[in-house]
Design a protein that fits this description.
Length: 974
Amino acid sequence: MPEQVFVGREGELARLHTFMDRVVAGQSQVCFVTGEAGRGKTALTIEFARQAQEKHKRLIVALGQGDAQTGMGDAYLPFREILGLLTGDVEGKLAQGSITQENANRLQEFLRFTGQVLIELGPDLLDLFFPFAGWLGKLGAFAADRAGLKKKLETPGKKGLEQSQIFEQYTNVLMALAEKQPLLLILDDLQWADTASIGLLFRLGRRIQQSRIMIVGTYRPDEIALGRAGERHPLEKVLAEFKRYFGDISVDLDQVEQQESRQFVDSFLDTEPNRLDESFRQALYRHTGGHPLFTIELLREMQRRGDLVRDEEGRWVQGPVLDWATLPVRVEGVVEERIGRLEQELRDILNVASICGRDFYAEVVAQIRGGEARSLVRRLSTELEDQHRLISAQGTRRLGPQRLSLYRFQHQIFQSYLYNAQNEAERTYLHEDVGYLLEELYGEQVEEIVVQLAWHFSEAELVDKALDYLTKAGQQAAARFAHQEALSYFDRALEWTPETEHGERLQLLLARASVHEMQGDREAQQRDLEQAQELSAHLDDPALPAELALHGANYAELTGAYGQAIESAREAIRLAKAAGRPKLEALGYLRWGRALWHLGHYEIARLWLERGLERSRVAQQRELEADSLRNLGVDCWYMGLYNEARAYSEQALAIYREMDERRGESGALNDLGLIAQYQGDMERAREYHEQALQIRRETGDRRGQAISLHDLGDVALHRGDCDRAQGYYEQALQIHREIEDRCGETMSLQDHGDLSFYQGDFAQAHRYYERALEICREIGERRDESRVLATLGRLLQQEGENERARQHSEQAVEIARDIGDRPSLGHALTSLGHALTALGELEQAAAAYQQVLDIRRLLGQGALAIESLAGLARVAQEQGKLEQAAAYVQEILDYLAERPLFGVYDAARIQLTCYQVLLAKGEPWARETLAAAHRSLQERAGKIQDPGRRRSFLENVPAHAEIISEWEGGGGGK
C-alpha cells in the first residue's frame, strides 16, 4: 500500500515538533489536536508521528482510538489498543496505515523490555487490558520464562483492586518504558472515549511530568459541547484542568477552514434576533460543516418542531429539547442522493455493514449475504472506497485460521443514515445474524467483544443472549475498575431480567453492590443488598443466606456499625454450619473477630479469629488462612503481645509470598513494621515499611502507599526527623485526596496536626485538627471524630484553655462510649484527665486516669499505660500524697528500664513528672532524671533544621520550656 500523501499543515506540524523536542529533552507533554469531522486530525497526527520517528531514531509510537458505537461503554478501549501495540500487536495498525513499518519494527524490538516492565510494574494489566496468553507466543518461550511471565499465566487474578491502582500501574509501566526510549502516544477520537479512559488520561497528565512521554489526543469540540447522556461530557473537565495546569496546548484545525464557513453560520443566525450561545453555534457548525443548504434547512426544521423558540422579546432561544439526530428532509435528500447513486447490490452491502457500526468486517457482511468474501473485498475496495468514497480500508487481522478485513464508513452520517433507513424488523434480524456470526468467529476469544455482542443481542431482542453479554460486559468493566460503565451494564441487565428470575436478579444486585462498594457509595450499596435479601426468600440455596449475611457484616464494618457487623457475622456462621460450607464459616469468624478488635475487645476477638483460622485450614483456603493469620497478628499487636503478633504476621507473609499475593504481602510487611515500631526497633520498622511501600507502588495500591507513607512518617517523627516526617505526611495526604479517600484524608490531617503540635506550632495544629474534625462529621466517621476531639482537648490544655479542653474531651468520651471503642475511650479519658487536673478537680482527674490505666492494662498497651501512671502521679503530688506519687513514678522507671516509650503523645511531660516527684521526695537521682530529660530534648531539637521551628519546639511546649528552665536554673547542675 503506498504511503498517504500529506500536504500543508506546516505550522501545526512545527508546533507539534516543538512539543516533541521538549519530550526528548526529558520534559513530558500533553497536547490536543482539535477539529470537526474531516478536518484531518488523524492524518496530521500520523504524519507528525512519521516525521518524528525520522528525526528521533529511538522514538516509539503507539495509537489508540475511540469508537462511536461501543467506545463509551468499552472500558479503556484506546489505552488497551496502545498497550496492545506496545506488546507487539502491530499487524492491524500497520495494515491501516496508522503506523509505519519502521515503527512496527521498533515495537517488535521493544517487546521483551515491555514484558519485563509489565510483569514487574503492571501485573494486573495482564488479561485486564489485553489477551495475555496470546502475547506469550509473540514474546517467545525463552523470553517469557526469563521474565517470569509463564508463572503469571498460572496465577489466579488479583482481587480487591481499585481503579486508582490500575491507573497507577499503567502510569508506572509507561514511565518505566520511557526511561529506555521516548514514547509518543496518540489517542484518537476522544469524544467517544469511556469515562475510565478519560480518568486514566487525567492521571497520566498529572503524573508523567519528568518522563519522556508525549500524549497527543484528538477530539471534536462540538461533540464535547453537546455533552453525554444529558450531562457534561467527562472530557470537558479534564480539558479545563489541563489548560489550567499547562496553558495553551491545543492545535485547532478548525481555525483556518472554519473561518469562512463558520462566518456563514454566524451571519445567517444573526439575520434574526437571537440568544444562541457559542456552544449552540459550534454544534450547528459541526452538524452542517458550514454548508449553506444544510445550515439553513436544519435551522428551519428546528424552528418548525420547537427545538428553537422565541422568548418574550422575540429572540430565538433554545427550547427544552434539542434533536440533532433527525436530519431535515432536504439534508436527508442530499445524503440520499449520494447513497442513491449506488446500484442496489452495493446499497444492500452497506445496509448490512451499517448494522455492525461505523467499523465492520467484510467477511461478516459476506457471510450474512451468502456471498464469497474475496469478491466482496474487491467491490468494497474498488467501488465503495475508490469510486464512491463512502468507506475506507482499515487493515486486516486473523482469528485463528480466519482472515478478517476491516473497513470503516468515511463519515458517521452515512452509517447513521443507512442504519436508520432500514425498518425495525429488518434491523432486528440483521443484529441477530451479526451477533451470532461474531460469536462464532471469535470462539474462545469472545471475551474481546462482549460489549459489541451485548449491543447486537439487545437490539435483536434476544433476551437470554443479551443478558449473558450485558452481565459479562458489566463484569469486564468492573474488573477493569471502570465503575460507571459497569453500573450501566448491570442496570440494563436488571431491566431485561424478568422479575420472576430471582436468582439472576440477585446475582446482578450483588455484582452492582460490589461496584458501589468500590465507589464508596454506601447508600446505593445498602439498597442493592436489601433487594438481594428480599429475593433470597424465593430461592432454595442453603449457602445463599450465609453469603448475604457476610455481605451485611462487611457493609456494617465499612460503615462503623460494629455491633451490627457482629450480629451479621454470627448469623453467617450459623447458616454456613447448617449448609456445610467451612469457607463461609471461616469468613464469618474473620468478620466477627475484626468487628471485635475495632471495638477493643481483643481477647475475645482472638478466640474468633483462631476459629476462623482453623476453618480456613479445613476448607483448604490458603489465602483465607493467611488473612486470618494476619488479623490475629493485628489483634495481638493491639494487645501489646508483640512477639506473638510478629509470629502470626510472618506466617501470613510466607503464605502470601507462596501464592504470589502481593497485596497481602505488602499488608503483612506493613504489620511487621508497626510491630517493630512498638518494640522500639525503628530501623527494622523503616525497612518493613519501605518494602511494603515498594510493593504497593509496583501494584498500584494507592491507598496502601498512603498508609505506608503515614507509617514511615511516624517512624521519622519518633526519631525526631521532622523534615522527613513532613515529607512523608505530605505525600500521604496528596494520595488520599487524589483517590478521594476521605477517611484517609482525616488520618493525614491528624498526622500534620501531630507534627505541628510536636513542634509547638499550636495555631497550625489547630487548623489541621479542625479540618480533620469537619471531615469526620461530614462522613460520619465517629471513631476518628472521638480521637480528633480528644487531641484537640490536649492541645487546648497545653494552651491553658482548660474549660474548652474539658468540653472537647467530654464529647470525645461520650462518642467513644457510644460506639464501644475502648482504645478511643482511653485516649479521650487521658485528655479529660489532663484538663481536670489543670482545673484543680483532682478527684475526678484521678478517676479518669484510673479508668484509662485499667483499659490500657486490659488491652496490654504498656507504653500508653505509662501516660496514665504519670497522670496519677501528678494528681497524687498535687493532693500531697507524695508516697503514692513516688510509687507511680517507680513503676514508670521500671518499665522504661526495659522497654522504649513509643506511641505516647508527650514523653517530655512523663519525664518531667518523674523528675518533679523525685525532687519533692529528695531522691538523689532526681538530677540524673532531669539531665536525661534535658539531653533527650536537646537531641530532638537538634534534628529540627528550621531555626524558627526549633525555637517553637523548645519554647512553646510547656513541658519543654519547664525542663529547660529547671536545667538552666540549676535543678540539673551545670
